[in-house]
Amino acid sequence: MIIKKRLFWRALALMASISLTSTSIVSTAAAGDFADLIFTDAKIYTVDTSKPWAQTVAIKDGRFVYVGDNEGVEKWIGSKTETVDLGGKFVLPGLVDSHTHPGMSAVYSEMTTMPFTDSTGMPYTSRKDTLAWLKKFSKENPDLPAIVAGSWRVADFGPEGPNKRELDEIVSDRPVILMEQWGHSQWMNSKALEMLGVTRNSEDPAPGLAFFQRDSTGEPTGLSMEYAHLPLWKKLLRPTEKLSSKMLTILDYLSSQGVTSILDAGNLAYDEEVYAALSQLDKKGRLPLRIEGSYHIYLPNRIDNAVAELKRLRSAYSGDKLTLNTIKIHFDGIAPVYTSALLSPYSDNAKISGTTLFDESRLLVFMRELHKEKIDLHIHVTGDNAARIALNAYEAITDEIGKQPDTRLTLCHLDYMSDEDVPRFRQLGVVANFTPHWHGLSETELGFQTLGERKNRTMRAKPLLDDGAVVSFSSDQYSLEALAQANPFLGMQTGHNRQGVIGGIAAPVLPPIEDRVSLKNMIKGYTYSGAYQLNMEDQLGSIEVGKKADMVVLSDNLFEVNRYELYKVKVETTLLDGEVVFNLQ
């Protein structure tokens, strides 16, 4: 729940660790010349390279008006100024989760969950378990018009994937759609294919990327890749009246972890429902953080009207804390299901190297449109070829106009990237966005066996940082069940160590170990670089005079915590625009 400013003192009074003192200084000058709120005696890591540390901040009208030492703040203290002595507490700027999915997480929660998950929320079921579960569930729920559930494990099947025959033997009278663990492929029975109108003669939405797997005779096997299944999914999985409350649960959790701004990186076919609900929360003053929304292109035909649709959503739903100025493209898929676009074939299937949603020439035309409209672009790329095509198109438009386009480009995930393309990020001003909690997974969990020896050179943020590129970090959260993965301090720890939090120092290291990211760069990626990605670096991302007063008070100094204990650090208070939106009680 957002704590309004009039309740500020009541909230802080609940914090035993923070002492509160009222100022005794009374000035004859007008109250408007003084700060509303001052925090003193803190260890403030500002993320401002010109002044990285401070002791005191003063806030007026939701912005920082002073950042410095205790003595220098005295001129900002008036009769109505509230002063808080933080007693040496560690402070950061408000954190930015620059790629997450509160709406998609809420929608996915309407899906039935198979009861086979480990402590991280990932499935550990076997093929036998999945089929046994379906048999039992279908018998117990005979009146359900459809079964939409998740998730099964890719590793339980070979390169061809599962087959509809096994589902048909259990359920043949109603559609069954079972999502795999990463959400990039679906296992469907014959009834689901029939409702979709998919036959051996059907055209695929995006051949080689979003398509229906077929056997040697051309018959669909029941495996739908990427988002070819979406028209049926949208009919069968509908958000309920709980959509708003579920999204609020996610947003409140993020706020409790110090996050003050996010990029909602796409809602598949549910943009309308998600932004309508968020808009209502915004109008009621219930959003605990800023949300930059996006229009989601996941099938080729959605690019033609993307700009018009984004502008329509912006007009209908933007408000105080909800803005929409980004388009997200799902440009390729993921390596475990062979849809990541690679420069050379998969190691265990020499006939496949993956492809992109559309070619470089179409992407360039689209970038011209975005430049004209000053709309930012966020592109899902996991393969080295997908990254190269996106960089090529951006370089082409940069050369055309003779300057950096009025479209800030971010390439997210970057599971596998060519060393030749590393300097191009800095040269072109392209942001690289990573999901650090994945850096704590093993190559087996990630399903990178399909890459062969390339699996030892994945998810490498450090070469980009060393070259001077802007690198942001995020959670890519898409599950209510695994909400703890959205903890940015968990992300900082795993990105810093390239090890999962379970097992501590003994946990396996995701190679190469030399690509561990420094703690300073992890913090910068969750603050200034995230703000830069959102095109708000002049407003957010560091504690500087003139910027919005977003800040986080922590239980411990991150620079003094054991590198294997970072995820345990607690947020005590989160401020958004100078107001308390979370307080540890």
UniProtKB/TrEMBL annotation:
<protein>
    <recommendedName>
        <fullName>Amidohydrolase 3 domain-containing protein</fullName>
    </recommendedName>
</protein>
<keyword id="KW-0732">Signal</keyword>
<feature type="domain" description="Amidohydrolase 3">
    <location>
        <begin position="82"/>
        <end position="582"/>
    </location>
</feature>
<dbReference type="InterPro" id="IPR013108">
    <property type="entry name" value="Amidohydro_3"/>
</dbReference>
<dbReference type="InterPro" id="IPR011059">
    <property type="entry name" value="Metal-dep_hydrolase_composite"/>
</dbReference>
<feature type="signal peptide">
    <location>
        <begin position="1"/>
        <end position="31"/>
    </location>
</feature>
<dbReference type="Pfam" id="PF07969">
    <property type="entry name" value="Amidohydro_3"/>
</dbReference>
<dbReference type="InterPro" id="IPR033932">
    <property type="entry name" value="YtcJ-like"/>
</dbReference>
<dbReference type="InterPro" id="IPR032466">
    <property type="entry name" value="Metal_Hydrolase"/>
</dbReference>
